[in-house]
């Protein structure tokens, strides 16, 4: 089972994520992370696709995409930007999984 999470999660269970420009931001897990990112005045957030494990938003990361938070962004506008990235991430994850399964499937 996989999950699309509307925030950037680290590869480990740490409390921060290091962005592509080297900034550290909080790893926002759980609910209402879009609103929390805006309230924290973050300059970047993103989407993470990861495997589901019992711990909330802590499974192994499959992929992620960063999204800038612009002045004037609202939870609705930021959610739309994140959805665009999530649509791309889910397709990439399913494609990669299908190719992996095809490579190890028995030949007939």
Describe the structure.
The protein is α+β, with helices and mostly antiparallel strands. Helices cover 34% and strands 24% of the residues. The chain is built from 2 helices and 5 strands. The protein has helices spanning 33-39, 75-104; strands spanning 2-5, 16-18, 24-26, 44-51, 61-68. The strands form 2 sheets. Strands 1-4-5 form a 3-stranded antiparallel sheet, covered by helices on one side. The longest helix has 30 residues, at 75-104. The model has no long low-confidence stretch (mean pLDDT 94).
- Portion of residues in beta strands equals 15-25%
Count of DSSP E strands? 5
Encode the helix/strand succession as letters: EEEHEEH
Please mark out the parts with pLDDT under 50 across 5 or more consecutive residues, or reply none.
Answer: none
Classify the helix fraction into a percent range: 25-40%
Strand order of the largest sheet: 1-4-5
What number is the mean pLDDT? Answer: 94
Radius of gyration: 15 Å
Indicate the overall shape.
Answer: globular
Termini, distance in Å?
A: 28 Å
Largest sheet: 3 strands, antiparallel
Counting DSSP H or I runs of 4 or more residues, the number of helices is 2
Summing up helix and strand content along with how strands pair, one would put the structural category as alpha+beta
């Amino acid at each position: 089972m996989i999950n699309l999470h509307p925030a950037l999660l680290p590869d480990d269970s740490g409390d921060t994520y290091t962005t592509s420009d080297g900034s550290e931001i909080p790893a926002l897990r759980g609910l209402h992370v879009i609103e929390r990112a805006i309230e924290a005045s973050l300059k970047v957030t993103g989407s993470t696709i990861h495997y589901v494990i019992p711990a909330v938003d802590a499974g192994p990361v499959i992929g992620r995409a960063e999204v800038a938070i612009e002045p004037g962004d609202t939870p609705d506008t930021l959610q739309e930007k994140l959805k665009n990235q999530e649509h791309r991430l889910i397709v990439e994850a399913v494609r990669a999984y299908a190719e992996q399964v095809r490579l190890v499937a028995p030949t007939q």
